[in-house]
């Protein structure tokens, strides 16, 4: 502790803060795993990811800007299916609202993946904030411009959670592919 105090007294205040941020807390399950140093994918791989991201953006724009709820045609069918599954033991916790929340989470998982793979290393974890901002923008647009749609804070929460899950998945996939030994020929 005394050495940490001396170090921060010698360094400029900004440098001391950055030094503290670089350190991993002792006993953390992430100890020794740098969170921002997963390797950057190759240029070819990034081009493919960018093309997939463009397709995802178009699909999400189509879904969220449709003038009426996109699930309108399938609501009765899904509720009937859930009713039948509940009669056969599916917990009541799995409701239409739960399925809708899960669908919103899954819809934004690709954003976290794409952001993490395409962003510079220092911006990778900002994708969660981008997901929050995009989701908030979507909900405000639905509230103001699409009177038949329902803007809810639960959608913002679900979309942000999905972006976080995609970001963590991309980090994990890049970390494990980087740590895997290359095959010997």
Describe it for me?
This protein has 185 residues and is an all-alpha fold. The chain has one domain (38-179). The protein has helices spanning 2-10, 13-22, 43-64, 75-87, 96-118, 127-145, 153-179. Helix 3 packs antiparallel against helix 5, helix 5 crosses helix 7 (153-179) and helix 6 runs antiparallel to helix 7 (153-179). The model is unreliable at 1-14 and 24-30 (pLDDT under 50). Residues 99-173 form the VanZ-like domain.
Task: Outline the secondary-structure elements.
Blueprint: H1 2-10, H2 13-22, H3 43-64, H4 75-87, H5 96-118, H6 127-145, H7 153-179
Helix pairs in contact: 3-5, 5-7, 6-7
Summarize the structure.
The protein is built from 7 helices and no strands. With 185 residues, it is mostly helical.
- Beta content: under 5%
**Spans where pLDDT lies below 50 across 5 or more residues:** 1-14, 24-30
pLDDT averaged over residues: 80
| General form | globular
Beta strands, count: 0
Whole-number tally of structural domains: 1
List the keywords.
7 helices, VanZ-like, membrane, VanZ family protein, disordered N terminus, 185 residues, mainly alpha
